[in-house]
Amino acid sequence: MKLSLELTVVTRPEWVDAVMADLPSFLQDHADCERKASALVMSLVAKYPDRLEIIPELIATGVEELEHFQQVYEVMRQRGIPLVKEIPKDPYITALMKLLHTDPLRRFLDRLLLASIIECRGAERFRLVSEVLGDDRDLQKFYHDLWVSESRHGHIFVGMALEYFEKEHVYGRLGELNEAEGCIVDGLELRPAIH
């Protein structure tokens, strides 16, 4: 059974150019995204403590995201790049959150499926960054390894959804959200940020 998805829209090459033109800002945004990803996963534990089948995996994923934050921070520290106190709102995440259903059961499904899509988009972008960092072997390896990890996270969240919802329903809604995500990505301003 397939647990991941193919993104409907690929990232434009110009996005990579924007990242390479301001790598410090990209690293700052990346650190912030990893911090928020860990918090999001732990918020699922807090919001759904009765979903016992997935809590251990949620905790493990939250810890892994926090480790990614620590790793990005170490890269930044070595390069003299500070964390920023406030990063502007992420227009990608803001747009995705508008897709969530409001009733509790469907919202639970949507949160899991959007987490999967966000992880898949992150994996795609980490791969793109790793492919253009040939002169910086350490950073190239770092982003290659993150690409592999984020790809796995995309599988995890779909698997969690399948614990509670029928396969047809999960994949039907995943397809809807994936299409909507592609439209969002197509309309985003290019900036040195993960999203």
Tell me about this structure.
The protein is mainly alpha-helical. The protein has one domain (13-187): Ferritin. The chain has helices at 13-21, 23-47, 55-78, 91-97, 104-131, 137-164, 167-187. Helix 2 runs antiparallel to helix 3, helix 3 (55-78) packs antiparallel against helix 6 (137-164) and helix 5 packs antiparallel against helix 6. The radius of gyration is 16 Å and the shape is globular. The mean pLDDT is 93.
Mean pLDDT: 93
- Can you say what the CATH homologous superfamily is? Ferritin, core subunit, four-helix bundle
Q: What is the N-to-C succession of helices and strands?
A: HHHHHHH
Class, according to the CATH hierarchy?
Mainly Alpha
Q: Count of helices? A: 7
Which percent band covers the strand fraction? under 5%
Shape: globular
Q: What's the CATH architecture name? A: Up-down Bundle
Number of domains: 1
Which structural class matches the secondary elements?
mainly alpha
